[in-house]
């Protein structure tokens, strides 16, 4: 963790921009180039360690995005990648080798579970999955060759909350690197580095960019570890392009106001769903019915923009509810200004086995909402129509 120069809202807008008075563009330019000219070969050698050599190695537009995110998260450094999965895979491959071991919570994004369970064993890296909130189980799973403690909070899609203070302390005690996927939390609602988490990861595709027009990933941490990850990123070629980095920086400028509105809307939506008899269960950290409500309130300033609920019916009923919505667009992903709806067993967790999904608590009845910034009364009306339509169909079928 590094002391923040500015509060999150200010850092998101002004970020790493030079605030000195000068005759310059208010909006930073895009260095849309793959390579940079030098005057002679001696300079060519010198620039290889800068962001003006070759864009796979660095680019001023990419640097601006990275420095902005590092300031928002309160870390020394950050790196951006072509996708969230690219950020995770590159980081793990940079820090671990054959014979190493990972302890990971069971409830993680489906792509991560697949990478840990199916791909890393081919490289001689083993993973033990543990109950997300059983910290004694975390400790028991640690071996002499364990190198990484991998976390996600809030989890996708059940929105369980990890005690960051406990897990960071456990990692320090055993000399492990702690890494958390903080995508659902956003830098507006939580700062894992403040609790001692070493690496903070985001799928920047979601809230950081915020407009469903960009795919990217971010990892934040100490300068030393980021340099190690950077070497692997150069080799694998998993870097953002300059225009994507510029779009990310532009999206960050409205991050705080977008997330504030999404927090408000999501809490209203979750409260409505909790009172609807056609809904079996609602998952949302800032509902008092959430099993980790107190911890969520302690660690987070807002509950986030994702609400997951389980319909009182079958998996087919969940699909019908999602298809009956009009304002909530049926599409995967989340975090944008527009509201989306998806069925986790068919999207985010479709690539893993039904048995593993069951262990994660991901049911066929689950419907995941990404709540946008529209008028919340319109959103609730859309949900009400969809639930009533499916409820009426159930009644006809029973009759």
Tag the structure with descriptive keywords.
399 residues, alpha/beta, seven-stranded mixed β-sheet, 15 helices, 14% strand, globular
Concise description?
It is built from 15 helices and twelve strands. It has helices at 8-14, 41-46, 60-73, 84-95, 110-119, 135-141, 164-173, 186-189, 223-236, 242-252, 255-274, 293-299, 315-324, 354-360, 376-398; strands at residues 77-81, 101-105, 126-130, 146-152, 177-181, 199-202, 217-221, 279-283, 306-311, 329-330, 340-342, 366-370.
Question: What can you tell me about this protein's structure?
Answer:
The protein is of the alpha/beta class and 399 residues long. Helix content is 41%, strand content 14%. The strands form 2 sheets. It has a 7-stranded mixed β-sheet, sandwiched between helices. A 5-stranded mixed β-sheet has the order 8-9-12-11-10. Helix 8 (186-189) links the parallel strand 5 (177-181) and strand 6 (199-202). The model has no long low-confidence stretch (mean pLDDT 94).
């Amino acid at each position: 963790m590094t002391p923040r120069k500015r509060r999150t809202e200010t850092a998101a807008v002004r970020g790493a921009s030079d605030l000195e008075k000068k005759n310059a563009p208010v909006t930073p330019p895009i260095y849309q180039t793959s390579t940079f000219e030098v005057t002679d070969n001696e300079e060519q050698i010198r620039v290889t360690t800068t962001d003006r050599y070759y864009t796979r190695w660095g680019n001023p537009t990419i640097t601006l995005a990275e420095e902005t995110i590092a300031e928002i998260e309160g870390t020394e450094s950050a790196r951006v990648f072509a996708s969230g999965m690219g950020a995770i895979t590159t980081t793990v491959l940079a820090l671990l080798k054959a014979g190493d071991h990972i302890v990971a919570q069971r409830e993680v994004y489906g792509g991560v579970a697949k990478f840990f369970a199916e791909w890393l064993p081919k490289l001689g890296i083993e993973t033990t999955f543990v109950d997300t909130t059983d910290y004694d189980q975390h400790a028991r799973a640690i071996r002499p060759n364990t190198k990484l403690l991998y976390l996600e909070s809030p989890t996708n899609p059940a929105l369980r909350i990890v005690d960051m203070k406990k897990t960071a302390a456990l990692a320090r005690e055993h000399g492990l690197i702690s890494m958390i996927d903080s995508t659902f939390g956003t830098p507006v609602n939580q700062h894992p580095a403040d609790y001692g988490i070493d690496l903070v990861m985001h799928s920047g595709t979601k809230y950081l960019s915020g407009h469903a027009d960009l795919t990217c990933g971010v990892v934040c941490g100490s300068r030393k570890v980021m340099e190690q990850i950077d070497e692997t990123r150069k080799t694998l070629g998993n870097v953002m392009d300059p225009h994507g980095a510029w779009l990310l920086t532009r999206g960050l400028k409205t991050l705080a106001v977008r997330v504030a509105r999404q927090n408000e809307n999501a809490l209203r939506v979750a409260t409505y769903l909790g009172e609807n008899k056609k809904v079996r269960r609602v998952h949302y950290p800032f509902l008092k019915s959430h099993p980790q409500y107190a911890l969520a309130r302690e660690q987070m300033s807002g509950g986030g923009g994702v609400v997951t609920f389980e319909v009182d019916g079958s998996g087919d009923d969940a699909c019908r509810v999602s298809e009956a919505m009009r304002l909530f667009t049926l599409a995967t992903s989340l975090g944008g200004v527009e509201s989306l709806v998806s069925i986790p067993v068919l999207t985010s967790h479709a690539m893993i086995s039904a048995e593993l999904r069951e262990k994660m608590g991901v049911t066929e009845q689950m419907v995941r909402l990404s709540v946008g910034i529209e008028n919340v009364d319109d959103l609730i009306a859309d949900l009400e129509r969809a639930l009533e339509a499916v409820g009426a169909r159930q009644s006809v079928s029973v009759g």
